[in-house]
Amino acid sequence: MAQATRSRALALVAVVLVAACGQAPPPKSAPPAAEVTVVKLQPETVTLTRELAGRVNPLLVAEVRPQVGGIITRRLFTEGGRVKAGQPLYQLDDAIPRADQATAKAALGRAQATLHSARLNAARSAELAKIDAVSKQDDENAIAALRQAEADVASAQATLARGDVILAYARITSPITGRIGKSSVTQGALVTANQADALATVQQLDPIYVDVTQSSAELLDLRKQVAAGKLEAARDLPVTILLEDGTRYPQQGKLTFEAVTVDPTTGSYLLRIVVPNPGNVLLPGMYVRAVVGSGVRQNALLVPQQGITRDPKGDAFAMLLGADSKVQQRPVKVSRTIGDRWLVEEGLAAGDQVIVEGLQKIRPGMPARAAPPAPANAAPAGSGPGAVSPASAPPPGEPPTPPATAKKS
């Protein structure tokens, strides 16, 4: 009995083993598609800019110097204040100019009296000459005396006018309207005509110049792009001024002058910008940066910076979600940043879906799917009315940067 039971057990085990050996292994399941965030590229019109360093210079500069010599009796302005053109600045001792003016007036009066006498003599001589009562020579002498008297009057008038001018020079006035600096002389100082040292300097600060320099190589590159049709030249674009601390100056400038020669020592040329300066925030000598427009590009493609990666050689590439829902790696060429995005030169086209999030979960050739868009009424953490994303938030005190303005990276 025991022998029969053991035989049936062995037979059952054999049947199970045979069935197990003949069964096929279960098929392997396909890896699930990774969920990624994509950005579909759309062509845009952008303004390309370049950020250039420069210095502030006054619009007008006038160094005040005396045109006559004398002792300064009064200073008629407040140092550092605003003066107008023609406003008196210094008063010189004018005793000698006044005496010279009085002498010139007396000489003029004497010449006018002589002229009156000569005019009467000439008229009398002309009447007598008609009846041959005087000789022709005497009549000609009378006419010559009249002409000499007229010349003496004109000379005396010129001398008096010169005296008036010299007397006026005794009161030194401002040649332009602007801010005046420190006075280099005080009351009682002796000054001379056309001296080398200026008494004070007046500068016009509103509007004001910002002089920047640009590389001639950049100029050639810009001209090539315009000639190739990649850019549209833009000369009338407003210029943004950035102060030393990085804040944006509230007034925008205008490019008014480009130098016609290149500095051989630096390989750059001068650009001059006129900027309104009503509050005198910009002062001569101040270091600033100017964001100057170089051209307008139509149908430009912009990719978020997190969508561009570089390999160990430094070459840029992007990961795309293809039409077959598989990941593609494509080499690209980018040139400059526009806000938090790269400007694409080569490698991408409108309609491409660039992967910007989930890059660590994918590799070329693997399946992926785009994450569904967030609901329109869903706000991310920290958002709300008036909130600004960290990538585009400006520094304190600055307005946000327009999204369609590019600067040279």
Give the second-level CATH assignment, the architecture of the largest domain.
Beta Barrel
Number of helices: 4
CATH topology of the largest domain: Elongation Factor Tu (Ef-tu), domain 3
Structural class of the helices, strands and pairings? alpha+beta
Q: How many separate structural domains?
A: 3
In total, how many beta strands?
A: 21
- Please, what is the CATH homologous superfamily of the largest domain? Efflux pump adaptor protein, beta barrel domain
What is the level 1 CATH name of the largest domain? Answer: Mainly Beta
Report Rg: 45 Å
| Shape, principal axes of CA atoms | elongated
List low-confidence stretches: 15-20, 376-409
- Our estimate of the beta-strand percent is 25-35%
Largest beta sheet, briefly? 11 strands, mixed
Calculate the mean pLDDT score and round it. 81
Order of helices and strands: HEEEEEHHEEEEHEEEEEEEEEEEE
Q: Could you tell me how far the N terminus lies from the C terminus, measured between alpha carbons in angstroms?
A: 95 Å
Measured as a percent range, the helix fraction is: 10-25%
How do the strands and helices of this protein lay out in sequence?
Layout: H1 2-21, E1 34-40, E2 44-64, E3 70-75, E4 82-83, E5 88-92, H2 95-130, H3 136-169, E6 171-173, E7 178-180, E8 190-191, E9 200-215, H4 216-227, E10 240-242, E11 254-258, E12 268-275, E13 287-304, E14 308-310, E15 316-321, E16 327-331, E17 333-338, E18 341-346, E19 353-357, E20 368-370, E21 405-407
Helix pairs in contact: 2-3
